[in-house]
Amino acid sequence: MSTATAGGAAAPGPPRPTANRTKKARSMQGTRLWVAALFLLPALALLGALVVYPIGYSVWRSLFDASGNGFVGVDNYHEVFTDDRIRTALKNNVIWVVVAPSVATALGLVFAVLTERVRWGTAFKLVVFMPMAISMLASGIIFRLVYEQNPDRGVANAVWVGIHDTFSPPAPFPGAHPRGDAPLTESHGAFTTRAVVKAGSATALPLVGAKPADMKGAKDAIPARDVAGKVTGTVWRDFTRGGGGTPGKIDQGEEALEGVTVEAVKDGRTVASATSAADGTFTLPGTADGAQLRLPASNFAAPYNGVDWLGPSLVTPAIIGAYIWMWAGFAMVLIAAGLASVPRELLEAARVDGANEWQVFRRVTVPLLAPVLAVVLITLMINVLKIFDLVYIIAPGASLDKANVLALQLYQSSFGTDVNQGVGSAIAVFLLVLVLPVMYVNLRRIRRERRR
C-alpha cells in the first residue's frame, strides 16, 4: 500500500505485520504467562497452606465447643467479651496499642533529630539500635532481672532506692528493739521509758536485734556520766558475743548504737531531742527533767525496698518499657533515613524567615516526615497486637492475669491448663479483625504514595 506525496509520487506505507510475526508474539506472550504461573505456584501454595487454610480453619473451629464436635455458633465469641480474663487482656491490648507505638515513635523521632547534629551520632544510633539484635526471649529474661524486687539484684530498684535514700536517709538500726524486761515500752514502732527521767542521773537504754551489717565500725559503749542540770544516758546493743553478760548493764565489748534519735516527751509534746554519739551517750538539756524518753520509730523502720515493678498495678507499664527499649532503635533508624531525604533548603528558609528550632521542628520537619512516621507507627501497632513473648516471660505468676494480652490469652485458652480451642480460635479471629483496619490504612497509604 502507498500514499500520494505532494509531487505526485507514491510513498510506501508502514509494513504490515506478517502472520508468522503475529503468531510468534502470541506464542512468546503465552509462554511468559505460563512461566509466571510456574514461578508463582509454589509461593501461592505456601501462602494457602500457611495463611489461607489456618484462617479458614480458625473461623470454622471457633464455631464449635472445646471437644470440636458440638456446634455452638457464636457462643465462643460471646465468651470473649464476657470472660474477666479475656476482658482484662483486651483492655491491656488497648493500652499497648495506644502507648507503646506512640512512645517508641516519639523517642525515635527525638533521637533521629538530635543525633543528626552531633559527631558521635552514629555511635549513639548503634547503641540505641543494638537491642533489636536481641530476641524477645533474651530481652524478657534481662528485664525480669532488671525489675527484680531486691535492690541488690534488680537494677531498677537499686537506682530507685539510691535516689530515695539520698533525700530520705534510711533508719540507722532497722529491726532493733528492747528486751522484754527492759525499761521501755513499744507503741507504733517507737519505744518509750516507763518512768520519767531526772536531771543529774544517767539513763540506760539497752536494745537488741540490731543487724551485724549495721554494727560495722561501732565503738564500745560506755556508761554516761551524771551531769547536774542535764539528762544523760547511753543507747547500746545489750548483747555479748559468746554469751554471758548482765542484761540492762553495759558489759565489756558491748557496742554502742550511734546516731539514734532520743526525744524527751511531756504531755505528748517533744520538749527536747538529741542524737547518740559514737560511744552511745547522749545529753539532753534541763527541760527534759520529768519527761519520758522516747526512741522514735524512724530509728528502727525497715529499709526502703523500692517499687514493686512487677506487681499487679505496674506490671503492664513495666513490660511496655521493655518493649520501647527494644523498638525505639527501629523507629529511630527509619525516621533518620526519612530525615536524610528532607530538603535542607526548606529548613534553612524557615530559619531565615525567623522561625526558631522548635518551630522548624514542629511546622516543617514533622510534616515532611509524616509519611515515615505513619509507616513506623502502623508497623509498631501491628507488632504490639500480637505481643506475647515479653508478657509471658517478664510477668510473674502472681501478676500474669493483670498483665494478660490477647495473644497470651489465645495461647492459654488453646494450650493451657483449661483447654478450649473453640475460645482460642475465637480470640485468634478477633485478633485478625483488629489487625485488618490497620492493614487497610497501610495499604491505602501505599497506593496513595504510588500515585504521586
UniProtKB/TrEMBL annotation:
The chain crosses the membrane at residues 33-55, 94-114, 126-147, 322-343, 364-385, 423-443. Residues 90-442 form the ABC transmembrane type-1 domain. It is a multi-pass membrane protein. Keywords: Cell membrane, Membrane, Transmembrane, Transmembrane helix, Transport. CDD domains: TM_PBP2. PROSITE patterns: ABC_TM1 (PS50928). Residues 1-24 are annotated as: Disordered. It is found in: Cell membrane. It comes from the Bacteria. InterPro entries: Ig-like_fold, MetI-like, MetI-like_sf, UgpAE/MalFG_permease. GO terms for cellular component: plasma membrane. Residues 1-11 have a biased composition (Low complexity). GO terms for biological process: carbohydrate metabolic process; transmembrane transport. Its main location: membrane. Belongs to the binding-protein-dependent transport system permease family. This is Sugar ABC transporter permease. It comes from Streptomyces klenkii.
